[in-house]
TrEMBL record:
The keyword Transferase applies. It is found in: Cytoplasm. It is an enzyme of class 2 (transferase). Its EC number is 2.6.1.16. This is Glutamine--fructose-6-phosphate aminotransferase [isomerizing]. It comes from Streptomyces cavernicola.
Length: 369
């Protein structure tokens, strides 16, 4: 049932191009517009939404962090992202025009369920993004957008994460489409790019051997740090989470701009630092900033592992290891940039002799608060 793979996690990483394509299937029409009829929240209601609040845990929370960038950019609706376990305890401001989005692979995570119940009690509409048909979270929500990743068996989330991202982009783009924001042309262009993304994820998967080799060479380390900016920041958090849960290593993700406010003190000779570099096209300011961050940490002895777009030559002089990903619009980059981090964590865990599919102390769905 592992389809020839040693672990479910490897199988699920390999299934990502199909999972991503399946989540898009039937949701983009021939004219390149989105059709989300299944949503059960009317376009009229969506036009009234004046705030989006995303609640989720763990990896799903990281998908939510990325969604915020997309939603605010494409729709200009303010968006908050909150850990589901914190949400209802801080008396959040919710109203009928607040759209709450609950993201959950299993659909059974108690923290997320309690957060959405609280939101509905306050009169907000809840949209679930979920991978498990008929599970509790979609049943208790006003609407659901299923991710079609197929069953995810490994405890560490991989294909569910990528499909959660796709679903979040669909929600963001759909909100943009029904509200007719000034980004109309960009929205159409992004929908076209999204339709190509499965092939790009496949391309990344085909070039992972050097990443596996690198991971094996780091098996005796204690710490790996991850840096990113913009949507690369949640990608860094996700890379660190995967490494913690699978390799049991101290791994931490930072916003690269925060380095000088503290974390740079952690940099010492030889410490591996993975840096997620945004596309040099478009927002070049963002790119320039991160290139100087790489220079800063390398000058202090870090061993730099750089994830950068094909053709980005500016990073080459400062990268001890360079991992290439296909060119994508910045907001979509997490779909390709996360894949090497999954492979990295999986291989490192294996090299350390850990049980990849069943990490210690963890359960696939967390049904207690
Ligand atoms: C990490 C992981 C967890 C889950 C989290 C939420 O790899 O799998 O962090 O993402 O427990 O689970 P769901 O999405 O089922 O609500």
């Amino acid at each position: 049932e592992k389809g020839g793979y040693d672990y479910f996690m490897l199988k699920e990483i390999a299934e990502q191009p199909k999972a991503v394509a399946d989540t898009l299937l039937g949701r983009i029409d021939a004219a390149g517009s989105l059709t989300l009829d299944e949503l059960r929240i009317s376009d009229a209601e969506l036009r009234e939404v004046d705030k989006v609040v995303i609640v989720a845990c763990g990896t799903a929370f990281h998908a939510g962090l990325i969604a915020k960038y997309a939603i605010e950019h494409w729709t200009r609706i303010p968006c908050e992202v909150e850990l589901a376990s914190e949400f209802r305890y801080r008396d959040p401001i919710l109203a009928a025009r607040t759209l709450v989005v609950a993201i959950s692979q299993s659909g059974e995570t108690m923290d997320t369920l309690m957060a959405l119940r609280h939101a509905r009690e306050q009169g907000s509409k809840v949209l679930a993004i979920c991978n498990t048909n008929g599970s509790t979270i979609p049943r208790e929500s006003d609407a659901v957008l299923y991710t079609h990743a197929g069953p995810e068996i490994a405890v560490a989330s991989t294909k569910a994460f990528l499909t959660q991202l796709v679903a979040c982009y669909l929600v963001a783009l759909y909100l943009g489409q029904v509200r007719g924001t000034k980004w109309g042309d960009e929205i159409h262009a992004v929908i076209r790019e999204l339709a190509q993304i499965a092939g790009q994820v496949e391309q990344v998967l085909e070039t992972m051997e050097p990443v596996r080799e690198l991971a094996r060479s780091l098996a005796d380390r204690n710490t790996v740090l991850f840096l990113g900016r913009h949507v690369g920041y949640p990608v860094a958090l996700e890379g660190a989470l995967k490494l913690k849960e699978l390799a049991y290593m101290h791994a931490e993700g930072f916003a690269a701009g925060e380095l000088k406010h503290g974390p740079i003190a952690l940099i010492e000779k030889g410490v591996p630092v993975v840096v997620v570099v945004p596309s040099p096209r478009g927002r070049s300011v963002l790119h320039d900033k991160i290139v100087s961050n790489i220079q800063e940490i390398r000058a202090r002895g870090a061993r730099t592992i750089v994830i950068a777009e094909v053709g980005d030559e500016a990073v080459v002089p400062y990268a001890d290891h360079l991992i290439r990903v296909p060119a994508t619009p910045t907001l979509l980059q997490p779909l390709v940039a996360t894949v090497p981090l999954q492979v990295f964590a999986c291989e490192l865990a294996t090299a350390r002799g850990n049980e990849v599919d069943q990490p210690r102390n963890l359960a696939k769905s967390v049904t207690v608060e």
